[in-house]
Amino acid sequence: MTASAHDTAHAAIETIRARVFAFPKRHFLSAGDLNAPQAADLLDLADAFVALNRQTSKTLDILKGRTLMNLFFENSTRTQSSFELAGKRLGADVVNMNPKTSSVAKGETLIDTAVTLNAMRPDLLVVRHASSGAASLLSQKVSGHVVNAGDGQHEHPTQALLDALSIRRAFGRVSGLTVAICGDVLHSRVARSNVALLHTLGASVRLVGPPTLMPAQAERWGVAVHHDIKAGLAGADVVMMLRLQLERMQGAFVPSTREYFRFYGLDREKLSRAAPGAKVMHPGPMNRGVEIDSDVADDPAISLIQDQVEMGVAARMAVLTSLAARIEEAGR
Ligand code: NCD
């Protein structure tokens, strides 16, 4: 490492140490667990981790001696590897549980699994499950700290945090921006967590999608609801596209994916309604040619999709560091 690279890495670590604070809750289950100053503190801490992650040497000992268990009952590529990298870069022992080879496949219940794993004394449990409320249920049965990595159609709070980080870095702020969340809102935990956190941070949120994919009384979330994408995107600063969650649909919610693309797929023509300089986001995995055209998804001048993946590791490092600080505070 050159002297200046060494200095930058050292400065990043010093910044991180100065920004660490004890997580406000025992578990991170919902985006609503954070108030505005707490969310801003986590974003500041995450920013410092972005700087660290861009160095050659990225490993710290903040979680040394701690065990992080990734419990992914549902398939995931980026979220699981993001938490795994976050844990490893912080010096934790990371265990990935694969439900397909575990006793869950043999009929063990979620609670049995939780109680068994709890006996191995994990400090942090990162949980993804197809049922809404699973992470909360599990948090009542274990002594470690639970992070909800997506429970059914309910919440995915670290996704909302990484999205807010991507937006804040692109625009310098979140407050006052208009964010249009478009597509399969009905089945989306990403949308629910984002609505909550974006509101906390002072953004105004619109939901855009066909009536069949919009939750009943979505207006009650304090958002504007649009079924016409052109009106929904008009003047928006951020266009957040959602994946058509075909695996959660029983029956036909859209006539065909081709027709869906015609009315709701984001292409340059529809995007031209948004504000000048608008940014496009997608939590991944993308259905190209269904909810988003590759032409906009892959344009680095407008797409934040790759930034979101990078910010995911930093945002999760911030959450894990802050939860670890809470463990220290409790003297465990
Ligand atoms: C999201 C999820 O799993 O909820 N993806 C992710 O976390 N990267 C969104 C999705 O699956 O469409």
Automatic annotation (TrEMBL):
Q: Where is the Aspartate/ornithine carbamoyltransferase carbamoyl-P binding domain?
A: 26-168
Q: Which Pfam families match?
A: OTCace, OTCace_N
Domain of life (superkingdom): Bacteria
| Pathway(s) served | Pyrimidine metabolism; UMP biosynthesis via de novo pathway; (S)-dihydroorotate from bicarbonate: step 2/3
So what EC number does this one have? 2.1.3.2
- State the reactions this protein catalyses: carbamoyl phosphate + L-aspartate = N-carbamoyl-L-aspartate + phosphate + H(+)
Query: Oligomeric state and partners?
Result: Heterododecamer (2C3:3R2) of six catalytic PyrB chains organized as two trimers (C3), and six regulatory PyrI chains organized as three dimers (R2).
**Its biological purpose:** Reversibly catalyzes the transfer of the carbamoyl group from carbamoyl phosphate (CP) to the N(epsilon) atom of ornithine (ORN) to produce L-citrulline.
Please give the family membership noted in the entry.
Belongs to the aspartate/ornithine carbamoyltransferase superfamily. ATCase family.
**Protein name per Swiss-Prot or TrEMBL:** Aspartate carbamoyltransferase
Specify the species.
Caulobacter vibrioides
Lineage, please?
Bacteria, Pseudomonadati, Pseudomonadota, Alphaproteobacteria, Caulobacterales
Q: Which gene encodes it?
A: pyrB
